[in-house]
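Please check the following.

. . .
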Amino acid sequence: MAKHPGKGDTGFSGTRWPTRNSVGENAKNVSLATLQALLVDGIDLYNCTRQAHWNLKGTNFIGLHEMLEGFYNALNEETDLLAERMVLLGGVANGVTQNLTTSRLPPYPADLLDSIGHVKELADRYAQVGKALRDGIDETDDAGDADTADLLTELSRAIDKKLWMLEAHLHGHGTQPNPA
C-alpha cells in the first residue's frame, strides 16, 4: 500500500502555472514540494481515520466513533487548505488515491477491530504528521515563504490537539509513548 520514499520523493510533479504571486521561485519550489508531501500524508491520515471510524469495536465505541467522525471532517478541510495553497503558488495539487503511494505513513492494518488498537495506530500516525508539519514549518520559513509556514503552524496546532485527544483515550491501557 504506502511506500516510504526518501526525503526528496514527494509526489510533486513539478508542474507549475504562471502566477502573479510574489513569493520567490526558490520559496515556491520548496513550499510546493513540502505541501505535496503533507497533502498526501493528510489524505492518508484522513483515510486511516475513516477506517478506524467504520470498524472500531469495544471500549467507549460511541464516543470514539463520534470523535473520529469530527477528526476526518476536520482533516478534509485541512487537506483542502494544503491543496489550495499549492494551487495559489502556481502548482498542481496531486491528491488522487492512485497517486498516494508516496505517503510517508505506514500502512494501516485493515483487519483491526479493537477500539484501543485503533486509537494507538491513529495516535502514532497523528504524531508522525505533527512532526512532518513542524519540519515543514521550518523548511518553508527558511525558504522565505512565511505564509505557508503560518498555514502549517495552524495545521500543526490542530493535529496536536487531535493527538492529545487520542492519547487521553490511551491513558491506563499500557500504550503510552516512549519518552524521546
